Amino acid sequence: MTESLKTGATIGILGGGQLGRMLSVAAARLGFKTCIFEPAGDCPASHVANFHMKAGYDDTDALKRFAESVDVITFEFENIPTSALDALEAVKPIHPNRRALATSQDRLTEKEFLRGLGLQTAHFADVSDTASLDAAIAKIGTPAILKTRRMGYDGKGQARLSSPQDAADALADMAGAPAILEGFVSFTHEVSVIAARNPEGAIACYDPGENVHVGGILSTTTVPAKLTAGQASDAVLIAARILNALDYVGVMGVELFVTAEGLIVNEIAPRVHNSGHWTQNGCTIDQFEQHIRAIAGWPLGDGTRFANVTMENLIGDDIAQIPDIAQSGAAIHLYGKADAKPGRKMGHVNRVTGPV
Amino acid sequence: MTESLKTGATIGILGGGQLGRMLSVAAARLGFKTCIFEPAGDCPASHVANFHMKAGYDDTDALKRFAESVDVITFEFENIPTSALDALEAVKPIHPNRRALATSQDRLTEKEFLRGLGLQTAHFADVSDTASLDAAIAKIGTPAILKTRRMGYDGKGQARLSSPQDAADALADMAGAPAILEGFVSFTHEVSVIAARNPEGAIACYDPGENVHVGGILSTTTVPAKLTAGQASDAVLIAARILNALDYVGVMGVELFVTAEGLIVNEIAPRVHNSGHWTQNGCTIDQFEQHIRAIAGWPLGDGTRFANVTMENLIGDDIAQIPDIAQSGAAIHLYGKADAKPGRKMGHVNRVTGPV
C-alpha cells in the first residue's frame, strides 16, 4: 500500500489537457505541487501547474527525470505507451495501476474482464480480417458497430454496420487495426458513475449522471439521472465491483446503458471523466480532488450531491457563447485553449437547476 | 469604463500570497492567464499562475514590463507603495482604483470617508505626538486603542490604553508613526460583508459572515451570522453605499461591529478577504471568481448562499491537523507554504454544516 503523501509533495501528471488542468488545481488546493508531462507547449494544465516537462513519450531520459522529480504519478488519458509506463514505473508508483490501464486500453480485454465479473456488456467478437468479421456478423447480427480495439475516443475509430453489406467498408475504416464488433444495444439512455477508491479500499461513488452525446462527443450530463432507486443502486454496485476487482486507486468513469433488461456496461475510463465535471458545482469535493486524495492515499472526501446540475460541454465555436452564459448565473469552466477548432473541447458550463 | 476582457487575456496580480493564489485559480477557470508580481520566490500564487515576475516594488523597470505584459492589474494587499502604483497606472488600468486604496491605506482617511457617508464608526482622533494623544484621550476617553494610521494588519501596530496612564507606552509602540486613537466600541460580535461591484455599477453582496478573532488574527467565519433580518439588510446596504461612493470595481471586505445601537463600520479592505473564504464551499461563484469577473468587466456571478458553513483558518502548527481534518469530510484549502511559522496562515478549512 502507498504511504499517504504529505502536503508539499509533488504529483506528476501525464497529459496536459483540461483534465490535467483541473487535477492540478485540485492538487494545489490540498497543498501539493504538480509537474505536467506533456509534449505540447502552452498546454492547459501547464497554466496552473508548478512545473511542465515538455517532452515526448519516447524520450526515456525525460520520463526518468520526470519520475525522479515527483512523488507519485497519475495520468489524464489512458493511451499511454507501454514503454513509457515501464520507464516511469521503474522509478515511482503509478496510480491507477497498469492492470486498469491495460484493461481499458483494449476494448476486447475490457469486455472480457467485465464479463468475467458477471456484468452485462454488448455482445462482442474479435475481428482481425474479413473472415473473422464475417464470423462476428454471423454470431452477433446487424446493426452492429465495428471499433478499433485500441486508441478510440470521442467516437473516433468506429464504423457502423446497418447490414452485412457494410462489412467491407467498415473493415477498411479500421485501416488494418485489430477491431471488435459490438452488437447493437437497445438502450433508453446512458448514465455514468464516477467512482473513487483509495489504497485502503474505501470507495466513494458520486450519484450517476445522465449523458447525452452529439456526434459521438459528450454534450451534456445531468444529475439526477432518470433511474429507479434500484437502478441507481445497481449502477453504484457495478462500479464498486469493477474498482475492487482491479484493486483500483483513483477515480474511474463507468459508462452504463440503461435497458429494459438492466444496466449494460459500455466502457470504463481509468481517470477523471468528462461526465463527472458536474461535481465541481454539485458536491463539496469534486472528482478531481477525489482522484488526488485517492492517489495520495488520503481519506476520500465528501462527494454527497447537494444540487441538481446540468453540465454542458463547450465545443469549438460554442466558446463564442461565453458572454451570454456569463449573464446567466451558470458556473463557467474554461480550459485556456487558444484556438477554437471544430470538435475541440474548450470548456464546460455547470448550470445548477435547484437543490437536491 | 473598462471594456470587458476576453478569454485568453492576462490578469496581473500584485502580491503572491494565498489571496493571489486563489485569484489565479479563479482567473484560470474563466480562461484568463495570470502574471504574479511578487518579490519572494516560490510564493503560493506562483504555483498556479502562468507567470511570476520576481521583482521588488522599487524596481520601476520591472513594474513597467509587468504592466506591459498584462491587460489589467489587480492586487491582493492594500499596502502597495504609491510610486509603484504611479508606474503601473501609467501603462495599464488598476482595479480597484487608487481612491479605494488611498482610503483604506490610512485609518484616518478611512474613518473620515465613512463618516462622510453618514455611516457609524468608532470615535477617533488624529495622534502625532504626546500633546495630540492627550487631547485625543480627553475627547474619546479610555479604554481606547492607539493604531498606526498605515500598514497595520492582523492586529499589528496597535496598542491598547486601559487608562490615560498607558499613553506614553502606547505612543512609544507607534515608533513615531502617525497614529489614530479609536474609542472602545462595545460590540457583541463582528460580521463582515463581502461585496462586489463591476464597471457597470452592478453590485452583488454575499450573506454576512460572523467573525471570531484570536490573538488579533481571524480564526473563524460562520454563515449565517447572528443578525436580525434588519441588521443583515443594513449590513448589505452599508457595503453597497461604500462601493458606490468609491466607484469601486472588484471585491471588498467590509468589517462591521454589531452593537445595540446598530452596525458600526470597523474597517474596509479593498480586496478579497479572509472572511469570504467560506464562499468557496457555500456559493456557486466564490469571492475570488467574483473579483475576477468584476475587474474583467464581466457580469457578476451567482453568489447566492446554498449552505451553512464555518470557515476555520489553519495558522502555524494547525497544519499538523490536516490528516484528521481530511477524515472529517471538510473541504481543505492549503496555500503551498513550506514553513509553518507561528501566526502564519497556512490554509483554511470550510465545514459545511447543513443546507440553507
Automatic annotation (TrEMBL), chains A, B:
SUPFAM superfamilies with a match to the protein in the record: Glutathione synthetase ATP-binding domain-like, PreATP-grasp domain, Rudiment single hybrid motif
Protein keywords: ATP-binding, Ligase, Nucleotide-binding, Purine biosynthesis
Pathway named in the protein's UniProt entry: Purine metabolism; IMP biosynthesis via de novo pathway; 5-amino-1-(5-phospho-D-ribosyl)imidazole-4-carboxylate from 5-amino-1-(5-phospho-D-ribosyl)imidazole (N5-CAIR route): step 1/2
Reactions catalysed: 5-amino-1-(5-phospho-beta-D-ribosyl)imidazole + hydrogencarbonate + ATP = 5-carboxyamino-1-(5-phospho-D-ribosyl)imidazole + ADP + phosphate + 2 H(+)
GO-annotated cellular components: cytosol
Listed InterPro entries: ATP-grasp, ATP-grasp_carboxylate-amine, ATP_grasp_subdomain_1, PreATP-grasp_dom_sf, PurK, PurK_C, PurT/PurK_preATP-grasp, Rudment_hybrid_motif
Record-listed ATP binding positions: 107, 147, 152-158, 182-185, 190, 213, 266-267
MF annotations from Gene Ontology: 5-(carboxyamino)imidazole ribonucleotide synthase activity; ATP binding; metal ion binding; phosphoribosylaminoimidazole carboxylase activity
Annotated ATP-grasp domain residues: 111-296
GO biological process assignments: 'de novo' IMP biosynthetic process
Pfam family, one: RS_preATP-grasp-like
Subunit structure: Homodimer.
Function: Catalyzes the ATP-dependent conversion of 5-aminoimidazole ribonucleotide (AIR) and HCO(3)(-) to N5-carboxyaminoimidazole ribonucleotide (N5-CAIR).
Protein name: N5-carboxyaminoimidazole ribonucleotide synthase
Biological source species: Cognatiyoonia koreensis
